[in-house]
Design a protein that fits this description.
Layout: H1 2-27, E1 67-73, E2 79-87, E3 92-98, E4 104-106, E5 108-111, E6 155-157, E7 163-169, H2 174-177, E8 181-185, H3 204-209, E9 215-220
Antiparallel strand pairs: 1-2, 2-3, 3-7, 4-6, 5-8, 8-9
Length: about 220
């Protein structure tokens, strides 16, 4: 009888093992079966740069925004402000910050030549003056109307002499203004807006300068 008892004991041990094995085979056949096909496991990135070829939307997706800037200085060489021009999809965003200026509105223009020389003469000659080396207002292509291509929104200075302006323009591009000069004038610009009742018409000086007066600060755009 001993041999028979031994066989029954062995069967009791083997049966659960077979059941576990069968369950394992069933589990591997469901829809959660793992795969070694590339791309089926979502990529996980740490703070390190995303691998080359990572699809957009994964990792850092910010696009570089091209920009240029200018440091604005007065005729003594003191820095009185900064300006930044940023390409933002079809137009430029312009941010100007300044201090130490007379309160009120000041003409703000891009000029033809990137030379900010105090006590200099204009390209066409004549009496010297501050920053005349920068030439006249920038015109792009065949444009000869007023306001000029380089005319920007006037800079309004507060009572404490500080100013901050954020404006836009699509009359020029970054390529148009690189190497040119940004100018702040002593007075406001009328942009050639002389009503016809003040006949006969705006004179050449008014159209050329906007009657904005002397040039008080200048910076080369780079």
């Amino acid at each position: 009888m001993a041999p028979s008892t031994t066989r029954r004991s062995n069967w009791r041990i083997v049966a659960p093992v077979l059941a576990v094995a069968a369950l394992g085979l069933t589990a591997c056949s469901n829809s959660q079966e793992s795969s070694d096909v590339k791309g089926t496991t979502p990529p996980v990135f740490t703070s390190s740069p995303a691998p080359a070829g990572t699809p957009s939307g994964l990792g850092n997706t910010s696009e570089p925004r091209d920009s240029v800037s200018a440091t604005l200085k007065d005729s003594s060489g003191a820095t009185i402000g900064t300006a930044t021009f940023t390409n933002t999809g079809g137009h430029l965003e312009v941010v100007v910050e300044a201090h130490g200026l007379k309160p009120g509105f000041h003409g703000l223009h891009i000029h033809q030549i990137g030379k900010c020389e105090p006590n200099s003469t204009a390209p066409a000659g004549g009496a010297p003056g501050d920053f005349l080396s920068a030439g006249g207002h920038l015109q792009v292509g065949d444009n000869n109307t007023h306001p000029a291509s380089g005319d920007l929104t006037s800079l309004e200075v507060l009572k404490d002499g500080t100013a901050k302006l954020t404006t836009t323009t699509d009359a020029v591009t970054l390529d148009d203004i690189k190497g040119k000069a940004l100018m702040i004038h002593a007075g406001a610009d009328n942009f050639g807006n002389i009503p016809t009742r003040y006949a006969p018409a705006p004179d050449a000086e008014t159209l050329a300068t906007g009657d904005a007066g002397a040039r008080v600060a200048c910076g080369v755009v780079a």
